[in-house]
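ok here's Aminotransferase DegT:
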Amino acid sequence: MRMQFVDLGKQYREYKKEIDQAIQGVLDSTQFINGDEVSSLEAELADFAGVSYAIGCSSGTDALLVPLMAKGVKPGDEILVPAFTYFATASMVSHWGARPVFVDVDPITFNIDPAKIEEKITNKTRGIFAVSLYGQPADFDAINSIAKAHGLWVLEDAAQSFGARSGSKCSCNLSEIATTSFFPAKPLGCYGDGGAMFTNDPDLADLLRKYINHGQSKRYHHRYVGINGRLDTIQAAILRVKLRNFSQEIELRNEAAAYYTKHLQDIVETPVIIDGNVSSWAQYTIKVENRDKVREVLSTKEIPTSVHYPMPLYKQEAFSYLKDSGPYPVSDSLSTQVLSLPMHAFITRNEQDEVIASIREAIHG
Ligand SMILES: *Cc1c(COP(=O)(O)O)cnc(C)c1O
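and the structure:
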């Protein structure tokens, strides 16, 4: 069988007994919505990330929508978002009727560039959605201090970085609010859609929890207009098994990343992790000038690769109504050069050797 980009089958076989038991347990209990599995997972997620409150929800996308509701963001309000990230970071802002205002990214980390934030702040700016792209935390010390000076709140879109660290703190504990995704291929993935929101503020936690349950204060009494954005109980049970093994998986991902870097850094631009940061390696992404050719050589050898992302957000058709033509030079150039390689906790050195040899062949001809 050929190599997988993210080998979920291998991971399942590793934990099959525990996962099957966890799913069966939910079936036997018939507690399909909320219940012990969800509340236990929330406590375990909070404990893992060192945050006071974790609130499970239906996806990483809904996790970005609900804080806009809880923060009372109004039509026309502006939220700063990186120009180079997954679509959902900006689409929920737009969906909620607010305006995503793009900020170019740093050429080393590919995360929002703090030096370019202030020029985008207006009297309509309410908050900043900063993404920890590919698993490396953004520069939250700088972002938080700019936000504080301007009376803004900060949300970490940690969809790719659960399990990462910045100094002594974990991703999801670096800003007022954080969100993550349990999409199957994310570092901590479930077997469908799922996500979570994090905060240390008890009042905000309470609001977020109400908004994912129809704004309900008690049964059939609705204080707010919210959504049905709860995390499925079966998914929570699966996530509890995976979370028990997650620290070990983060270590394995870091070993695999170090191996790629050691054997590729002389021929391509390999990822740079800032001192004090630990990445969760949602993606291992190199930069190459002749990306199409490299992809083609790898694909003839049935080595899967992916491009995260081929287009900066300001160029997306869905955002043409913003009439924002930049410039976002770093985002533009990244979108033509980035290439993500197979990466997961169970990748073998043999598989990596094959990827490495193929890249060397593609570059040296
Ligand atoms: C995956 C992802 C999301 C969306 O998460 P879903 O669970 O798929 O809805 C949001 N932001 C970023 C940066 C992502 O990578």
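+1. The radius of gyration is 20 Å.
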